[in-house]
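Entry 14. Ran structure prediction on the chain below.
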Amino acid sequence: VFGAEYAMRVWMDPTKLASYSLMPSDVQSAIEAQNVQVSAGKIGALPSSNAQQLTATVRAQSRLQTPDQFKAIIVKSQADGSVVRLSDVARVEMGSEDYTATANLNGHPAAGIAVMMAPGANALDTATLVKSKIAEFQRQMPQGYDIAYPKDSTEFIKISVEDVIQTLFEAIILVVCVMYLFLQNFRATLIPAVAVPVVLLGTFGVLALFGYSINTLTLFAMVLAIGLLVDDAIVVVENVERIMRDEGLPAREATEKSMGEISGALVAIALVLSAVFLPMAFFGGSTGVIYRQFSVTIISAMMLSVV
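Output, structure tokens:
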């Protein structure tokens, strides 16, 4: 919390103190003696019953709460019977406990609060919950008070995620267009195109299983994986088309024969590609935490593309 606590400020006048033969320490002693925080007793003090689980100390509120009450503090009694009160030698007002640090927003006094996330927390979910709770508090605040968020890092996160999602869809469209351009067959293009969203959905499931969220890093890994995961589907489709053309077999039998021929190669391709990214999952420190999600995403996509 960057705002300061309220406190009673006492501004002593040296000239008036001298006229009454007083020192600042005399004023301090008078305030301490007449504004004492006392204990009002205890709840559950000894002797206690066996069912009692705690003992609580009760403190009474200070006797003096307002500037007028502090002004009435007696600092000195004169020989003629008159008294010197705090208002005679000082100016009393409610102010800040500490003026060494202040919080301002657009030139206006403010009370700042910084919210730090716990390790592993989701930034977007945390921001949503915090803003929801603050909105509840705002309804109970006096009129004239407003809530502002001068620095919200989640806005940058949202923009980054939206940009990566847009790139993801653009990559899918480009991959489909390139496949059709070179295969020159709509049916042969359709099968790998369908494999892309199916594999991505399966990858989301794997991420949920590992407890990973959909963030900029995992989405970027999916963008890179799109061009790799269609390779298996293209190889299968081309081999099935070749068997159907050369041997005249129906689609079902051609597919079974094709998978018998190239299943080993497909598994080997997935293992080789996964082996490239697998070491990243074992990095230590903060680097490992970051790249582990990247590695798991790509490897999951590769393995699911074989299935």
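The CA atoms of residues 104 and 173 lie 49 Å apart. Will compare against last week's run tomorrow.
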